Amino acid sequence: MMEASWALATLRLANRVLSSAILITAFSMCLYILRHNLRHAVGRAFCILLAMVMMVYLGDITILAVESPASALPWLKFQWVGIAFVPAVYLHFSDALLNVTNSFSRWRRLAVRLSYLGSALTLLLVIFSPWVVREDVLAAVVPHLQPGPFFWAFAVYFFAAVISGAVNINRARVRCLTPSSRRRMAYLALSFAAPALGVFPYMLISALPASLGDETLLVILLLGNVGIALMIVVMTYAVAYFGAFNPDRVIKYSLIEYILRGPFLASLMVVILLVVPKVGTFLGLTGGMLTVFAAVLAIILVQLAISVSRPFLNRLVYRQDLAEVAWLQELDKRLLTPSDLEQFLENALISLAERLRVRNAFVVTQGEGGFEVRAQCGEPRTLREFLEQHNLNPLFQLCQSAPVENSSFADIDGYVLRPLCTQNRDAVLGMLIVERWPLAPQIGEEVEGDVSDLIEQAEMALEDSHLQQGIFVALQQIMPDIDRIQKRRQLMQYVTSLPRLAGESPIQDPSFSRWVKDALSHYWGGPKLTQSPLIELLVVSRARDQLGGDAVRALRDVLQQAIESLRPPGEQNMTAPEWTLYNILDLKFRQGWRMSDIAEHLAVSEPDLYRKQRAAIHEVSRALVDMEHQVTASQ
């Protein structure tokens, strides 16, 4: 008898733990979808479905802890908010899935609205009448209400809605275009019944408790709860792809890590809080202290396990792309931001100053307005005075013309200067300025190796920074195209006929700046001009009407107007900073100069020129947007 009661208590505890885990999982998955997929109709419908599940399981957890059947009555009725509305949400969710596959039906929309109305009516009947359920609470295995005369009508409505939803999802799966989208719809079809199985009030079927023993019923509930928790996770995995334009590997990895750090860890805390005190009592230990120790230990071990298992997760998620992903992760570690570069150079300067026993050391590079300080060690005022008193341009140009021959130290007015060059010694990146030491420009043998290493590190950091700026420029140029590819890819996965994305003005497209750059690059003719989407601009259409229907000439004329809108007043000046953007557009796109010639003509470095060209194209894009808005407003 004692063993039977112990087994029953254990099963009750296990079901309470699993009910808590399902509540935590549903809540966590709802937050995840709200964070990543709220703008998509499928994501919103799924969140409503999870909210209904949460209400039911919150009631289950509370009912298991009540002291009397009378105390359970309010929570038993509270559960019916979720139970009553689950059928309507099922139809809503399945209709949203079919809409994704480009299948729309006003009859389905009407059925969804009627089902919400029917669910609201059911809830009112539960609260204010005994027709669906009676207020007599039975405390058999689990406290529950007794069925009313219309309960069987609700049961028919409940399962009819769930089956209709399953049929709709199967139709959506058949309509999918790609194997991956069809596979995700299959996941939804297989796990679709989980919320319904979890929330339906089986205990109201009067013959059920009598036909099953208490232990058998609790075992069935336990196994059912395990399956429901897993299927909710599977449904979330499938829904996470709707409306998300990130690559599949990013979505998959993000969800796995979120589950481990969120619902898994939270569920483990519930197990500790409910189980450890009982174990402590059995062992004769203080339950509170043991629980705190176990919780802290579990949090630390879970975080450590996630970090240790990261390579396994990478192999599981990325598989064929493992080498490329490892390279991207390594690239993320090695990329230098401007702050990273400044700190790296500053550390190198501090070490160099200590080796040479001097107080001041600086690294400067040539910028738009002259020399710019990239890092410093010592008194800033000292450096400013030195730069104000000395013109470093001649020395910099001399080193630039012959980097190898001029890569040694030069002594100038109490300071020693040395060019910082590329590894190939074919270009000068900046200038190292060090306060003169007693034996300068000679370096003692004991520190010569260290000084050379520090200078080489500074040169490598500067060169890497230049290369990375080129990477950033390239990424910024292709990001609109990547976004567009992801959007097209997402649409093509589910719809049976690809909708036209550009039913709106080209200025609203993420690739607008890219189209402007392409059109400018073929300013005097070429496919990037003749086939440019910019021809669809209203301002171009107006110019085409004025030019006898020549669309290409009209686009070139509009680009000309946009460029001229950036021209400063007065005579063209090749050295004035305010003329820089206009000069780049004029020389590069209208006159066809090479970038190296433009850099030499404007007396700027090529990396700086590329940054300014990007800014110039951005200004042309903005001018075109303003012109388009003016035409739109005048219509």
Structural class: alpha+beta
CATH third-tier fold name of the largest domain: Rhopdopsin 7-helix transmembrane proteins
Largest sheet: 5 strands, antiparallel
Which second-level CATH architecture of the largest domain applies?
Up-down Bundle
- The count of domains is 4
Determine the number of helices (DSSP H or I, runs of at least 4 residues): 24
Instruction: Give the CATH superfamily of the largest domain.
Output: Rhodopsin 7-helix transmembrane proteins
Mean pLDDT equals 77
Total beta-strand segments? 7
Give me some keywords for this one:
alpha+beta, Rhopdopsin 7-helix transmembrane proteins
Task: Give a description of the structure.
30% of the residues are buried. The longest helix is centred in the last third of the chain and has 50 residues, at 445-494. The strands form 2 sheets. A 5-stranded antiparallel β-sheet has the order 4-3-7-6-5. The chain has a two-stranded antiparallel sheet with strand order 1-2. It is α+β, with helices and mostly antiparallel strands and 635 residues long. α1 runs parallel beside α9, α5 (151-175) packs antiparallel against α6 and α20 crosses α21 (551-564). It has 4 domains: 2-245, Rhodopsin 7-helix transmembrane proteins (Rhopdopsin 7-helix transmembrane proteins, Up-down Bundle); 251-327, no CATH class; 338-466, Beta-Lactamase (2-Layer Sandwich), CATH 3.30.450.40; 506-634, no CATH class. It has 24 helices and 7 strands. A hairpin with a 2-residue loop joins β3 (361-367) and β4 (370-377).
